[in-house]
């Protein structure tokens, strides 16, 4: 069990960091952390994530419908916590590279990364010599339905690939998670760097 105060402090710091890196433009994105088996805390809707205050957070019951004032995307956070007890924090943002690269991977349902040392930043990946897949799901405005589609996609892994602890919504942005806020942050930073590499690689091709 994590105290709400500690979780909120870590999320405020993570949001400031994500904001400074351009991952949360125009009040977009949302950040959450697990408090217990049954509760989590999430950013309120519509606030500037670069200057969050403790009152900008809402406590959620993981098995109840989202409370008023939470972001429309709250069901996507809830589903990750419900489906995996090891998920301790979820960071969602709209960086330019994730927005662009997600559209590139939409048809195949994922983007595959191989040969990058920084893949090792993802929990469970110990070598550059493995293929890491970042699942991509078409965007949708019926977020409850979308949460189900995402869960199905995350549960289906092709043989010979490892899933990154993140996924992309096409033309929308990324969701990244970890056991702690610090782990989720590292995953999101590695994802953005690796997607940036793939974007540059595509540009370098004659
Ligand atoms: Zn979003």
What's the layout of helices and strands?
Blueprint: H1 4-20, E1 30-34, E2 39-43, E3 57-61, H2 74-83, E4 89-93, H3 96-105, E5 110-113, E6 131-137, H4 143-155, E7 161-163, E8 166-169, E9 173-178, H5 181-204
Parallel strand pairs: 6-7, 6-8
Antiparallel strand pairs: 1-2, 1-4, 2-3, 4-9, 5-6, 8-9
The protein binds zinc ion (ZN).
Zinc ion (ZN) binds at residues 28, 73, 92, 94, 172-173.
How would you describe what is shown here?
With 206 residues, this protein is an alpha+beta fold. The chain is 36% helix and 21% strand. It contains 5 helices and 9 strands. The chain has helices at residues 4-20, 74-83, 96-105, 143-155, 181-204; strands at residues 30-34, 39-43, 57-61, 89-93, 110-113, 131-137, 161-163, 166-169, 173-178. Strands 1, 2, 3, 4, 5, 6, 7, 8 and 9 form a 9-stranded mixed beta sheet that branches. Helix 4 (143-155) links the parallel strand 6 (131-137) and strand 7 (161-163). The protein is globular and about 50 Å long. The site of zinc ion has 6 residues, from loops.
Keyword list:
single chain, 206 residues, alpha+beta, 5 helices, 9 strands, 36% helix, globular, binds zinc ion
Short description:
By secondary structure, the chain is of the alpha+beta class.
- Overall shape: it is globular
Helix content: 25-40%
Kindly report the oligomeric state of this protein: single chain
Q: Identify low-pLDDT runs.
A: none
Q: Which structural class matches the secondary elements?
A: alpha+beta
Order of helices and strands: HEEEHEHEEHEEEH
Q: If helices are DSSP runs of H or I spanning 4 or more residues, what is the number of helices?
A: 5
Distance between the termini: 53 Å
> Hetero groups bound?
zinc ion
Radius of gyration (Å)? 16 Å
**Mean pLDDT rating:** 94
- For the secondary structure, the number of strands is 9
Strand fraction equals 15-25%
Biggest sheet architecture? 9 strands, mixed
């Amino acid at each position: 069990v994590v105290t709400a105060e500690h979780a909120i402090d870590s999320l405020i710091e993570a949001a400031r960091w994500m904001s400074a890196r351009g991952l949360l433009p125009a009040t977009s994105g949302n950040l959450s952390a697990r408090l217990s088996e049954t509760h989590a805390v999430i950013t309120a809707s519509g606030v500037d994530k670069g200057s969050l205050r403790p009152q900008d957070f809402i406590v959620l019951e993981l098995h109840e419908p989202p409370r008023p004032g939470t972001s429309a995307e709250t069901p996507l956070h809830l589903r990750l916590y419900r489906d995996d007890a090891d998920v301790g924090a979820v960071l969602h943002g709209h960086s330019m590279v994730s927005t662009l690269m997600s559209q590139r991977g939409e048809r195949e349902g994922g983007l595959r990364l191989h040969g990058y040392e920084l893949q090792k930043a993802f929990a469970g990946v110990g070598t550059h010599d493995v293929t890491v897949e970042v699942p991509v799901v078409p965007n949708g405005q019926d977020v409850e339905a979308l949460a189900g589609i995402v869960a199905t996609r995350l549960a289906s892994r092709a043989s010979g690939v490892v899933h990154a602890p993140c996924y992309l919504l096409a033309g929308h942005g990324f969701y990244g998670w970890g056991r702690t806020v610090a782990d989720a942050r590292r995953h999101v930073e590695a994802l953005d760097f690796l997607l940036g590499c793939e974007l540059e690689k595509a540009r370098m091709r004659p």
